[in-house]
Amino acid sequence: MSGQVDEGLRSELQKQGIWVTSTQELYNWGRRNSIWPLQFGLACCAIEMIATAASRYDLARFGGEVFRPSPRQADLMIVAGTVTKKMAPQIVRLYNQMPDPKYVISMGACAISGGPFKQGYNVLKGIDRYIPVDVYIPGCPPRPEALLHAFMELQRKIDGQKLTGEKKAPFLDRKQPSEFPVPAFGAHDLEPPANPDVFRPPVVERT
Amino acid sequence: MESLEEIKARAERAVPGAKITIVPNPGPANQPSLLLDNEHATAVVQFLRDDSELRLDHCSNATGVDWLDRKVSKKVKVKKVVEGEEKEVEETQEDLFPGYLEAVYHLYSMTHKHGPVVIRTRTKDRAEGARLPSLTPIYRSAEFQEREIFDLYGVRFDGHPDLRRILMWDEFVDYPMRKDYREPDDYEYEPTPHDEVLEKAKQHQSTRPELDGAEKLTARS
Amino acid sequence: MSAGFHELEEAPPLMTSRLEGDLLEVSMGPQHPSTHGVFRMNVALEGEIVRKLKPVFGYLHRNHEKIGENTSYLGSMPYTDRLDYFCSMTNNWAYALSVEKLAGIEVPERAEYLRVILAELTRLQNHASLLGFLLSDMGAWGTPLMYAFREREKILDLFESLSGSRMMCDYMRFGGCRCDLPPGWMERARKLVDGFPRFLDEFEKLIVSNEILIARTQNVGSLSSELAINAGITGPMLRACGVNYDLRKVDGYGFYPRFKFRVPLGDHGDCYDRLMMRALEMRESIGILKQAMEQLPAGPIINPKVKLRAFKPPVGEVYGRIEGPKGELGFYLISDGSANPYRYRVRPPSFVNLTILEDLCLGHTVADVMVILGSIDIVMGEVDR
Questions:
Q1: What residues of B are in contact with residue A119 (Cβ under 8 Å)?
Q2: Quick one: average pLDDT of B38-64?
Q3: How far apart are CA C255 and CA C97, in angstroms?
Q4: What is the DSSP string of C327-358?
Q5: Which of A74, A131, B43, C231 could crosslink A68 through cysteines, CB 3.0-4.6 Å?
Q6: Which residues touch C343 (CB under 8 Å, ≥6 apart)?
Q7: B205 with B157, same domain?
Q8: CA A168-A174-A178 angle, 5° bins
Q9: Is residue B194, in this structure, part of any structural domain at all?
Q10: In a domain, B85, yes or no
Q11: Residue C1: what pLDDT?
Q12: Helix, coil or strand: residue C75
């Protein structure tokens, strides 16, 4: 464990060409530098996502340039754009098809809460009603730099995940669900309108 | 292009029995339209498309409009016998105009490069009688747009080859673009409601007694 | 002839020339790498040949029209950016033009010139990215898209320094534009326009005589001019069939009649023509840009008489349209004299252009469907609204 080796000693050893590490660090280092996102865009934000992956912003610097068209090969779902009620079941299904460990970035105002289209009858007011989200990026659409920042935040999160012990990462806990029920199309709305196991909104006083 | 009156006169001559009304359009835009009767609409439009002078071969836009029941009150002077003598008394009369749904088409000519000629058809009412003749057999471009009108307004187009919902899912029962449509109740989760959203949230909450008192809770996370 | 000989001729062949069997139904999309967003097609295949194709819409139906009817006229302007999110400037223009027609508002000369410049820049970046996407749909994964996005970023930088946002510019207002050019903008724009033909030369060298591209696009998805007119096809797709109908010439909105430019026309209406139409239109756009930048007059950029905040147009209705990069973009507005439009309708070019998708794809292989769809140039934000 890295905790058992003194930081100063570690860096001194590193200067001499000896690298001391732990399985957890090595494992997380490998995971965080090869996040494969699902190639999946919904609306305007998807264009900024493509711009992030293109030559100027170059997502490859963070190891995330391998966009996979199949959810079976993806680690990360970037929900880029407005989630409509007609699309929401498909997104939950795609999330369920992704293998663990999996992460979700909710990109843009629409994916967070419905954004400017919140008052639309066919707009889902936030993808976190059905699936858990790791990083939220505000913006309409967020700039490519913001997506890069979200990527770095996610890498930080992965770095901090423990493999053993009480506080081990949720995907290692067998009791934690990795699939969530897919909502059905109802006569007026999706059924159910939110998954209560995932969605716990704050209640604010209204006068 | 000839004036709308001339088009109307020629179309009525070409299609016997057709009733065409010119709907004036005030304002600077000045795009008046032709209101067609439902029985002869297809024949008139066929004429507009095939006539060599008009050649309105490009149906650019097709859309629906919802007009609710309107009450128009006006003051009328009525002669009445009041206390034995005849007097002229002002009374307010309320006229009820039943609502209807409308389909509006904008026709242009790609051959002669003129237009637009705006045509409209009206349904009898907003319920069972919401039927209109489809122009898809004449203009292919109306195919998806008429499906959209059916989906969002609930106008049934007779003669449309494939009339299904297009934007909403098939199980959906409402017609969301109608003016009296009320969207489903998912505003209670709004953490920071304001303006219209707050009004809507209040409306929804008053209809849900089981949520009574929920709005009095203090903020928690 | 003897009866025996006749019988021999009538006898069925021992083997059928092709396999008979049930049609295979495939649902392509809504999550598919090359459906340009959340578009879905239900395809019935016989082997690899498309026998039936039904598009399914609505996966990005975000109720633009309903929201537009519940908000003020000015309040809809930022929403128009998000219709066709590649071309926010032309969307702004179409909406501003319709409202100006509805309320009878004059636009100052400088604003009209700026609009032309921005619309043509939008056309450049839209067509460039379309070519990149189309090539990556065909399997040229990566490189052409990178080239296209390199040029697009330069134009987006111009938009950003002008309006504050890369994609959602929200730049035009009824009666003019929101703000004047920042210092040095014109020089940068001139430099970009002067350098753009180099990119086009390079790109055309990549595509024009590329054997694979020709095999994939020529005689694929041919469209006749009669069907195109009847189905309301507009934009480069219509002109690829040889129909000379460009609203910049026909309606002569803005100051387009003052500029010299040609309208490129195709003659087969296949995917190759549609692709080349974009490349040629970019050349013409560069010409328009050069003229407009030279003639740009000084003066106010917005009509001072227009009260944007409490804007209430007179009662009436209007249909205004412009030539967007994807085709005829129209707005149909009904005003009842109040602050909100009674009816707010967008006539989306790519939605109407999809009407003939099935006709184009029938008889082609399933791999061609992606090429045909890409050549139509759709953006789901506009198709579903």
A1: 183, 196-197, 200
A2: 89
A3: 13
A4: EEEEEEEEE-SSSS-SEEEEE-HHHHHGGGHH
A5: A74
A6: B63, B65, C69, C317, C332, C333, C334
A7: no
A8: 100
A9: yes
A10: no
A11: 42
A12: helix
Residue B75 placed within a domain: no
Q: What is the pLDDT of residues C41-77, one digit of tens each?
A: 888 888 888 888 889 988 989 889 988 998 889 889 9
Question: In angstroms, rounded to a whole number, what is the distance separating the alpha carbons of residues C82 and A140?
Answer: 10
Pairing mode, strands B33-36 and B20-23: antiparallel
Q: Of A70, A195, A184, which is closest to residue A131 (Cα–Cα)?
A: A195
Inter-chain CB proximity B29 and C229 less than 8 Å: no
Going by C-alpha positions, the residue among C126, C130, C375, C328 that lies closest to residue C232 is C328
Average pLDDT over residues A74-99: 91
Residue A206 above 60 pLDDT?
no
A123 contact residues in C (CB cutoff 8 A): 62-63
C167 CB neighbours in chain A (<8 A) are 44, 47-48, 141
Residue C121 has a CB neighbour count (10 Å cut-off) of: 24
**CA nearest neighbour of A150 among A54, A57, A56:** A57
CB contacts, 8 Å: B143 with chain C: 231, 355
Helical spans, DSSP H, in A54-107:
88-97
Residues B164, B116, single domain; the answer is yes
Neighbours of C226 (CB within 10 A): 11
pTM above 0.90, yes or no: no
Strand ranges for C182-336 from DSSP E = 316-324, 327-335
Count, residues in chain C: 385
- Expressed as residue numbers, the domain containing B139 is 4-69+100-181
* Tokens of residue C167, six digits: 């994609």
Say how many C-beta atoms besides its own lie within 10 A of residue C161's C-beta: 15
- On average, the pLDDT of chain C sits at 87
pLDDT score of B75: 74
Helix, strand, or coil (residue C161):
helix
Is some CB atom of chain B closer than 8 A to the CB atom of A31? no
**Cα C56–Cα C60–Cα A92 angle in degrees, nearest 5:** 90
Report if residue B88 sits inside a domain. no
Q: Closest approach of chain A CAs to the CA of C112, in angstroms?
A: 27
- Confidence band of B213 (pLDDT split at 50, 70, 90): very low
Contacts of B21 (CB under 8 A, 6+ apart): B34, B35
Judging by beta carbons within 10 Å of its beta carbon (0-12, 13-18, 19+), is residue C46 exposed, middle or buried? Answer: middle
Give me the residue from C38, C79, C166 closest to A42, CB to CB: C38
